[in-house]
Amino acid sequence: MKSVVIEQPGELVLAERAVPTPAAGEVRVRVKYASICGSDVHIWHGHNPFARYPRVIGHEFFGVIDAVGAGVDASRIGERVAVDPVVSCGHCYPCSVGRPNVCTTLSVIGVHRDGGFSDYAVAPASNAYALPATIPDKLASLVEPFTIAANITAFLQPQPQDVALIYGAGPMGLTAIQVLKGVYNVAQVLVVDRLPERLALAKANGADGVFNNAEVPLAAQLEGVQPTLIIDAACHPAILAEAAALASPAARIGLLGFSGEPSSITQQSLTSKELSLFTSRLNSHRFPQVIAWMEQGLIQPEKLVTHYFPLDDIERAMTLFEKDPRTCCKVILQMQ
Ligand code: NAI
Ligand code: MN
Ligand code: ZN
């Protein structure tokens, strides 16, 4: 089989590898489509602190179960599945309180173990979620990125009367817009980015208002509007202080970033307005929820997609994705 392997930081190869055998409790998936994420690019360049090499990357993938390991019901062979990359132990403290995404022995498919940019991938059977026929193959790998928005909004509890502000109109910001509008019916969703092309995508994904902060600071453009719910999907460490300054009293702020740089912020700017801060990493069992949202037509994954490439074009696809955020959003790889 063909697999995209990062042999070591900087070295990406399309390698010929043996088809894996599913271990006890696992399924093997014949991968059909997989989508590229910023973290795949980070692993390629050696900028992901969690990655171990060599690694088959890819944590957003869809396929059909073609073999099962011991203890897995063989009737699952032939099932169309989206695979949750979060593999957890099930008994540590975070697992015991429903937070497997921060399991003390967390293992992420495509990061800590081999992933889905490959003709075949193996995963625990319970990580493979059956998909209804209404979700087409070409879009099924996008369940995972929407689970990020599902996870952070579960903390933020959006309400229809919220005035939401989203920093960043990349894939993460766009999924957040769709979930706030389509699932939670938030009246006003505002989005800020520095690229006009990305802001146009934000509008197409349902944003009610967009702001470009490339030259004029956001504060000067908001005209006193105080957001009650803020999501940082741009993830620059300076954003938290600005968000706290702009927020309404009693607002909630959600953070998604992994920067190792400090964010400078005063206690006063948070406590005087009694702001709530939430962080969110990956997802905690949110695949069923997102699959239901797609099935009900509450979210539109096709609005994120700009390109399809065959797996053979992996380097071209990853390079375009990395270098060209003005024309690229979600890039999907097709296997075979
Ligand atoms: P992206 O790079 O495609 O999008 C970020 C957007 O933010 C870009 O359009 C960029 O122009 C804009 N931006 C950058 N600085 C800005 C600023 N100061 N003000 C306004 N806009 C600004 O990335 P993507 O895929 O949407 O991911 C966004 C972030 O989310 C990344 O930092 C990533 O590490 C993080 N992430 C976190 C996850 C989690 O589970 N916590 C999961 C996936 C991504
Ligand atoms: Mn991803
Ligand atoms: Zn655990």
From TrEMBL:
Cofactors named for this entry: Zn(2+)
Alcohol dehydrogenase-like N-terminal domain residues: 24-132
GO molecular function terms noted in the UniProt entry: oxidoreductase activity; zinc ion binding
Domain Alcohol dehydrogenase-like C-terminal: 171-295
PROSITE patterns: ADH_ZINC
Pfam families: ADH_N, ADH_zinc_N
Alphabetic keyword roster: Metal-binding, Oxidoreductase, Zinc
PANTHER family: L-THREONINE 3-DEHYDROGENASE
Family: Belongs to the zinc-containing alcohol dehydrogenase family.
NCBIfam families: PRK10083.1 (NF007489)
Name this protein carries in UniProt: Zn-dependent oxidoreductase
